[in-house]
Write a structure and sequence with these properties.
282 residues, alpha+beta, four-stranded mixed beta sheet, two-stranded antiparallel ribbon
């Protein structure tokens, strides 16, 4: 089956020990059935590190919320001991996401990973979509790119007088949250809902970054979410940049961090995504 990917897909590499927000902490990591069979063969190596009860297989995080295989230098001890082929499916695929269609798959890289943000927001040119097998254009890639372009073309900056950011901040605060940093940002928005846009928002440099965010949201969510979902999420990230500007002029790193938090808290929670869609009236 044809697989489509963004053209920067090949550039992704895990930051490993250099990552400031490891994906090996804070998540409840389920183990797929095939990997569970392999893990059972490891015997005492898995003792206290995973519950391998059929149908309930998952890693047992340490008291600090870290995966039991996260080493002190930020590396995966299982990879060090047994090689990359030892990983379970979710660990091997993360931060990739996949949308399945009748005749093709669309694969992307989630912004919950700071390495993805570094790649995406440093781009000046629009994202191009290609065949994953050879990195070349194809009819399906062109059709995907057309859909993404049409959606991004309709996404607009919502004037502050047309949206109640105080209520939206309260709504996002009502959702399940994992990271205190996300709560802090939302609380700032709740207290300062009428914050003006930061000074650099309309510069060419920031337009390029925010266009990349548009493209990402459209590509990831168009199969399952209404266009209004992508638009409100895009505007939310901009508003969080605006409240950041109350303390400092936002930089690319701030967008990477805001996008990482948004992605982790909303995109990687089917429940939270569904609640946002419902709040929009769908």
């Amino acid at each position: 089956m044809t697989e489509i990917v963004p053209d920067y897909y090949k550039d992704f590499a895990c930051l490993k020990g250099e990552c400031r927000h490891t994906c090996c902490s804070g998540w409840e990591i389920d183990i797929d059935a095939e990997s569970a069979v392999r893990f059972r063969s490891y015997g005492a190596y898995m003792d206290g590190k995973a519950d391998l009860t059929p149908g309930m297989e998952h890693f047992i995080n340490r008291a600090d919320g870290n995966c039991p295989f996260l080493s002190c230098d930020g590396l995966c001890q299982m990879i060090l001991d047994k090689g990359e082929g030892s990983l379970c499916e979710i660990c091997a695929l993360h931060p990739r996401f996949r949308n399945f269609f009748e005749d093709h798959i669309e694969t992307g890289l989630g912004l919950c990973c700071e390495a993805v943000g570094k790649i995406l927001f440093s781009r000046k040119e629009p994202v191009h979509y290609v065949d994953a097998t050879d990195g070349k254009d194809s009819q399906q890639a062109e059709e995907t790119e057309k859909i993404v372009s049409e959606i991004t073309g309709e996404m607009e900056l919502i004037p502050s007088e047309n949206i109640d950011w105080d209520s939206w901040a309260e709504f996002f605060l009502s959702l399940e949250r994992m990271d205190d940093a996300w709560t802090v940002l939302l609380e700032k928005l709740r207290r300062k809902p009428d914050t003006p846009h930061f000074s650099g928002l309309f510069t060419a440099e920031w337009k390029e970054r925010l266009d990349r965010l548009k493209e990402y949201l459209a590509y990831r969510h168009y199969p399952d979410c209404p266009n209004e979902f992508m638009e409100i999420c895009w505007n939310l990230c901009i508003r969080l940049l605006d409240v950041t500007a109350l303390e400092k002029e936002p930089e690319e790193e701030d967008l990477i961090e805001i996008s990482r938090l948004f992605s982790s808290e909303i995109e990687y929670s089917d429940e939270n995504t569904g609640k946002v869609v419902a709040e929009l009236g769908y």
